[in-house]
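Moderator note: this is an archived Q&A kept for reference. The question asked for a predicted structure of one protein chain; the sequence and the answer are reproduced below.
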Amino acid sequence: LEVNKAGSFSFRMLPNHPHYDTIQLRTSILDVYQNGELIFEGVPVSIDTDFWKRKRVTCEGELTFLNDSILRQLNPTHRTVTELLGDYLAEHNAQVDNWKQFQVGTVTVGTGLYLNRFTNYVTTLSQIAEDLVNDLGGFLRVRHDQGVRYLDYLDASPHTSKQVVHIGKNLTDLKTNLDTLD
């Protein structure tokens, strides 16, 4: 899981797995549960098969569905944060299948604030990041309730820990990577 990003999940499948041949890129939905709680839902974006026919499946989280729609030129003016997010999600929902749709969830960022924004043919996720998260801060969270997918926009992360990090005690490994690609 990543803050304000789709997140990813990878796993390996052996050739004798009952679903070995059923996973389809960008259309299969994969759910990951921990202790009965849904912690990840996403779609496969790559499948690599090695010499022994073991598959490595990499999935992107469901926030990536917001990359499947483009916001046409709009100039929503004098909109609350909740209304603006609703406008963006309504445009997204009109362009995608039902299983990729979002409803506006809980919004705690910018309450009482009115915004004037302009969209120009970018993905819905890019526009939400540009107009809301980058300007106002906050956290995007996908939440499910009674079969409905909600996009919450929260001023504080719902996933915080009070655990203190101690090198060599509960932090046993650290890796850094520098490259010049970007």
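Archived answer notes: The chain has a mean pLDDT of 91.
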